[in-house]
Structures are given as structure tokens and as C-alpha cells.
């Protein structure tokens, strides 16, 4: 199954970072962010794109009543702020580090346009990323419109297995070490935190999974 919530198969950092290009390497630096530091805020000027060298970044926005809505949590090799190259002048979302050792490669819009013009591989990867992002948004809308909350949660857990999971050699369980809080999961699948807690406990009682704050374990007999 292709990842719809994350784009781990499109490691843009490997080919897009200006450090990979001799003409830009000397003039380019990485920026370090601690947990809860903001890379940019809503309504900031959209004059750069960002690649994650390491760490994790939360992308979101605030609703009219001040509620934080999490759109995505991104990891190493992923690009964000890409609307800047599509003509957006202001940010309609915020980007926040959720790791104590996040390292970001920033790319000016003009530099990105030059690299896209001069490098076909670069352009292909950028367009692939944007295409996958539109596909993700379309899929997410379908889930929100046509699937019940438990089904949305189950599909989200399947995606987490692909993105963060591994098989335990001793038990055969699928173990997921993920960066999400229950509030984040609730925001991503369009429900409330109490509902997520209830559903996770129901799945636990059904012996489908076990979980704690940092890990979800899909039990072998249900996997």
C-alpha cells in the first residue's frame, strides 16, 4: 500500500538540498530547532521552502475558535512550505519542530526555481511530491466523508505500520514507534481526543492492539 499520510518514499533531501549542488553549497547553512520552536507562522511571508535533514516537524493551522488542527507530521527527507513556488505570498499554516534536534535546510524560492529549471531530476521529485500531496488530500477527504471514525482510525493505523512499524522477532507483533499524540491523531482523522481514547481502548479489549504514549503494538493474531 502506498503511503497516503506520509511521503517516506520521496526522500527529497537526497536530491534537492542545495548542499548537493556545487554552485549553492558554500552559501548555504542548516538551521537547528528545538522542540516547540516554530519554523514559520501563519501569515508569514512565503519566500522559502524547507527540507528536513533530521527530526520531526508538525504542520497545522488554527481554526476560528482557536483550536489547533494538525495537518501532518513530517520526518527526515520531506519537503514543506512548497506552496511558495506555486505563487502563494503568505503562509496559511504553521510549521513547528516537535523534536529536540530538528535540522532544516531552507531554500529560497528563486533558488528553487533555478534548480528546477536546470535539473530534470530535481523538477521530477518536486512535482512527484506535490502530486502525492494532492492524492493524500483527496484520499483524506474521502475517508472523512464516507468512512466511520473507527474505520478511519484503522486505516490510519495501517499507514503508521508502513511508516513507523517493524515486526518484533520474539512475538511477531507489529510495533509502531510514532510521533503522534492522541490529539494529533484525532485532528488528522477528523474526530475528538476522547473518541480516539475510547476507540483505542475498544481495540485493546478486542485484543487487536496494545498501546502507550509512544508505541502502538498490533498483536500478531489480529495482524
Lateral strand order in the biggest sheet: 1-8-3-6
Shape: globular
Alpha-beta content class:
alpha+beta
* Number of helical elements: 7
Biggest β-sheet description: 4 strands, antiparallel
Q: What would the CATH topology of the largest domain be?
A: Jelly Rolls
The Cα radius of gyration reads 19 Å
Determine the fraction of residues in helical runs and give it as a percent range.
Answer: 25-40%
Mean pLDDT: 82
CATH architecture of the largest domain: Sandwich
- Low-pLDDT stretches: 1-10
Could you describe the 3D structure shown?
- By secondary structure, the protein is an alpha+beta fold.
- It folds into two domains: 12-140, Jelly Rolls, CATH 2.60.120; 147-218, Arc Repressor Mutant, subunit A (Orthogonal Bundle), CATH 1.10.10.
- 37% of the residues lie in helices and 24% in strands.
- It is built from seven helices and twelve strands.
- The chain has helices at residues 13-16, 22-25, 109-118, 120-146, 149-164, 182-189, 193-205, and strands spanning 30-33, 38-40, 48-54, 57-62, 68-74, 79-80, 94-97, 102-108, 165-167, 174-177, 209-211, 215-218.
- The strands form three sheets. The chain has a four-stranded antiparallel β-sheet with strand order 1-8-3-6. A four-stranded antiparallel β-sheet has the order 2-7-4-5.
- A hairpin with a 3-residue loop joins strand 11 (209-211) and strand 12.
- Helix 3 (109-118) packs across helix 4 (120-146).
